[in-house]
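Lab notebook, page 48
Experiment: co-folding of the full assembly
Goal: obtain a model of how the components sit together before planning crosslinking
Operator: M.T.
Materials (sequences as entered):
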Amino acid sequence: ELKVEQNPLFLSMQEGKNYTIYCNYSTTSDRLYWYRQDPGKSLESLFVLLSNGAVKQEGRLMASLDTKARLSTLHITAAVHDLSATYFCAVDPNGQNFVFGPGTRLSVLP
Amino acid sequence: ETGVTQSPTHLIKTRGQQVTLRCSSQSGHNTVSWYQQALGQGPQFIFQYYREEENGRGNFPPRFSGLQFPNYSSELNVNALELDDSALYLCASSLAGGIAYEQYFGPGTRLTVT
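Observation: model returned without errors.
Model output:
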C-alpha cells in the first residue's frame, strides 16, 4: 500500500524566514503534485512535478522531486502571512487516483 | 473554460439516511474522481469514473456508489449514512491520457451527519 508522509505536520514561522516541507512516499512514482488548501476551501494546484530532478518555482515557493529517493521538497523563501495555509503533497502511481499526505499546516506570524 | 462545480455546498443529514452529491467536470475533461476529506486530514480516494464506468476504487464500503453521465458529470451516492461520513467531499476532474494526469478540484460539499 502506497504511503505518503509529510514533515513537519505543523509549522509556525516568522515572516521573512525560509523553511522546507518534506514529502516522502513509499513506492515508485514519477508524478508528484503539491496543493494548497485554505480553511474551509478546496484544493488549489501549486506544482506538478513529472520527472526525476524536476524543479518548479512560483513566487516564494519552489518544489523539487527526487524519484530515486522518493522525496519531494517544498521550499518557502522569505515567508509572508499570505502563505499561511495547509499544504498537501500527492502521489499518482498509476494515473488513477491520488494518494495524499496528511498535510502540513503552515502559520506565518508577523 | 468552466471549472469544476459541485452541489450542494452544504448538507445536513440524519444517520441512516441517503445522500446524493453532484459534480460537473471541467470543460474538456472526461474523468471524475471523488475524495472524502475528514476534518484535519488529507483527502482519501473513494473512486474514479471514466467513460461512465468505475475505473478504480479506494477502501470504501459498497454503500458508497457513483455514476458518471454522458456529459461527464458525476454523482456520489451514500446509503445508510453514519456519523463518520461527516466530511468534505471533493470531486476532481481530469483528462485521461493527458501527460500530467493533473486533477482539478471542485469547491466541495460539506456533509454533516447527525
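Interpretation: The longest strand of chain A covers residues 19-25.
Next step: discuss with group before ordering constructs.
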